[in-house]
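Case study B.
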Amino acid sequence: MHVLDLDYMLGLLPILLGYLPLTLEMAGAGMLAALVLASLLAVVRVQRTPGLNALAMLFISFFRGTPLLVQLFLFYYGLPQILTFLVAINGITATILGLTLHFSAYMAESIRAAIVGVDRSQTEAALSIGMTQGQLMRRIILPQATRVATPTLMNYFIDMIKSTSLAFTLGVTELMGATQKEAASSFLYFEAFLLAAIIYWIVVEILSWLQRRLEKRLNRAYQR
Amino acid sequence: MIALHGITKRFGTHSVFEDIDLTLEQGEIIVVIGPSGTGKSTLLRCINYLETPDAGRLTVGDLSLDVTRASRREILALRRRTAFVFQNYALFANKSALDNICEGMIVVDGLSKAEAHVRGREILERIGLADKANAYPASLSGGQQQRVGIGRAMAAKADVILFDEPTSALDPEWVDEVLSLMKQLALERQTMIVVSHEMQFAREVADRVVFMDEGRIIEQGPPDELFTNPRDERTQRFLRKVLANNPVV
Ligand SMILES: Nc1ncnc2c1ncn2[C@@H]1O[C@H](COP(=O)(O)OP(=O)(O)O)[C@@H](O)[C@H]1O
Ligand SMILES: [Mg+2]
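Model:
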């Protein structure tokens, strides 16, 4: 047993922090794409769009019903064997794609619940003055549903940041991959992974703090 | 002119009403009364296409449509010519009083935000809520919310405003301010169909009172005549019951 090598950790810190932007970028891109896809899925589910609704249900069921790691391997290693144009896909893109599909399935259900939660009479009011379904969604329902769903969506974002570490299994040198490489050359596995854990932890704590502030603001919305 | 011809509505196998005919002249004010469950709300909702009628013809101004063959465009056009005031106000919770009123002008009529706000503020003035422009529905009293609901309908410049029991969800203290706003609209000869149990209001404001029972228009006429001299036995029974609770002076 050895004592914690703090000097090594301090030296490693700037190196690992250098990989943080990539982690945040993958999560950020995944989140934005997932929000768009999840909103579309939710609207299809709420409006029970013929045909599309069944597809959306299948999609949601599959991506919630299988592990993210399996999905990532399927996209990165499996699919290119069948769809040969995907051979050029890199690990980062595959990760973002996987995170998007996986998390959009979960997020779609929260957004759907939030949409259904908006008082039905507002829908009738909007229709009664001649608004179209699209205008109703964009201007009345989604703004309110977004507020209700935001805390849950923030949780998914936090989860997504942690899940970017799986990109390591697709050969991407992100925070986790870099830690692994550093540890393998120094043999100081405990220090290296502890430091990686602390970095994730701090990022998540900052986001949780933002989330609490945001929630307070959202609770005050529309009350003035 | 507003005309309903042979309007029929069923929910599954349950027929709410069949073959309803009703005609209003421009500027006419009709109050519809009748026991609950009779189909008054459903009738109003059919005129606005919140319910899809099963048969008949609807005419509002220069638009006339066969309900069995109405296209989406025609339905939108019909809704733009009719406005609805809901029992539970149904304001947009994410919009201020002013924005509730302006929403339709901007989104449906295509006015610029600035133009809409000018008209919106005029309407706020008329409904006595000029100082509440930026207030959200959650911070308004029931009476204020319903006045905004009426303001939203006024903004639509509809050929007819349909009121579905606009005061029956209100605490008694707020009823008068809503009724007096409706009276003001009546004085301006805004065409309207009002479903209400406010007999005093019907007496003072209606050009014609329509009594509905079990999905049928039993009788109709000027309030003086219908209230003092109802011909049908069902009308007599209904009026006796209602007027016993709320005598009309
Ligand atoms: N969405 C609906 N589905 C099924 N039945 C309905 C629906 N809306 C109303 N009804 C029925 O239609 C009849 C008339 O209702 P309604 O128009 O609300 O009456 P009123 O407004 O006169 O009280 C009632 O028997 C009611 O149960
Ligand atoms: Mg009713």
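The two ends of chain A are 61 Å apart (CA to CA). The remaining cases will be described in the next quarterly update.
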